[in-house]
Amino acid sequence: MRIGSEEHLTLLCREFIDSHLEFDPNGLPWPALGEDDVAKLRALPFWDEAVRTERRTGAKITAYAPEESPALLREAVALQGFEETRHAGLLDALISHYGIVVDPGPEQPLPTNLQAAFIRTGYGECIDSFFAFGLFAMAEDLEFLPRPLLALLEPIVHEEVRHILFLVNWVAYKRRQEPLPLRPLHVARCVGAFAGAAYDRARSAGNVAGGVSGTSKDGFTASGASAIAGDFSLTGFVGRCLAENERRFAAYDPRLLRPRLVPTAARSFLVLANLQAKARSALRPGAPSPPRSDHPTHDSSSNAA
Asked: CATH for 6-282?
């Protein structure tokens, strides 16, 4: 299959549309939780940021969808807007049911360039979801919360995988529609969008970290992981994120492109961390060699995002 062809367009849209799940957040059977579980749920440090992000993402993508063409692509983008809005509805139902106090802040006006916002938002999901996969897996492994509750949250994770898969293939398709001399400009716009998304994530991490204890500098991912795991190992967590990222994307058509940039950066971090640990060990005579991180060492992806 040639990337940018009509076959590619049809596949990326049909894979996205056909894997849509039907459910109503307001009709979900929220399980009864004990006091300890409710307290753990309320203590998670990212509710404000999660609700704010999902509400704004749904609004931006829903507003952008009518600008898309052809009709099949417009249908897929509109469906993503619906799913993002439903994510916000699911979080609203959860926080209401369990009495979680949330302050997402005031609504902000929509950006004027909705396509640029769609790209930047999509790259933000590439960053967020990579780490969310690991957090969710850790929560399941450690039974941080009852499995019936985690099962109700699984559709959000499932849909984020699809959104990322759609985004990286949408970017590749759009790039191939540009005249050859303009493709470097498209690449530059995407690099700028990814840098903007990374900046947004860093700023959000600062907001979350400041709200945890007033002095924490761990950031969003580390504070969330440490809240779940307690004895938090950054290298172990990143390795788990890599494994979960590969497992979740394996369910989809292998002809579609996968994100590469965040997983590659994570693998590079683990290699450097392992080399640093070996160097420290070499300075201590008789010290055992550091254990190798348990993470995938190959990259089956074929597109950067």
From this structure: 1.10.620
